[in-house]
Design brief:
Length: 132
């Protein structure tokens, strides 16, 4: 029973560090991808980051990503919905369609930009999974 108490105490003690790391990560993401330096990310900036990540993930350089190359970044349902030509891969435009859906999900105020606070949400985290 004592071991459980120690583990719980350790988890409680490290929770603020995890939250700070998430906050730092969101701020770093904005800084990295914010080309116009306005403190927010618009869809064009997000798409540029997504295109660069697509290129990194495309290890066989065939211009498409299959589920193996994507890893856990997208769900099967997202993949199937985005794969418009039903060839079992996503091209850049199909990948960008998932990015756009996640962008809009992470932008609940619909102001056409995402700030660090919005990136810290679960939806913002799902968006950044596609970018790095």
């Amino acid at each position: 029973m004592h071991r459980v108490g120690v583990i719980v105490a350790a988890l409680i003690a490290t929770a603020p560090l995890a939250l700070q790391a998430r906050a730092d990560s969101a701020g770093d993401a904005v800084t990295t991808w914010d080309q116009d330096h306005d403190g927010t990310l618009d869809l064009a900036e997000i798409n540029k980051a997504a295109a660069a990540e697509f290129d990194k993930l495309d290890v066989d350089h065939d211009g498409t990503l299959d589920m193996k190359e994507l890893g856990q970044r997208v769900t099967s349902a997202e993949f199937i919905a985005a794969d418009k030509d039903k060839d079992g891969t996503l091209d850049k435009a199909e990948y960008a369609s998932i990015v756009a859906l996640r962008f809009h999900a992470a932008n609940p105020d619909n102001d056409a930009t995402i700030d660090a606070k919005e990136l810290r949400t679960a939806a913002g985290g799902r968006l950044t999974e596609l970018l790095k």
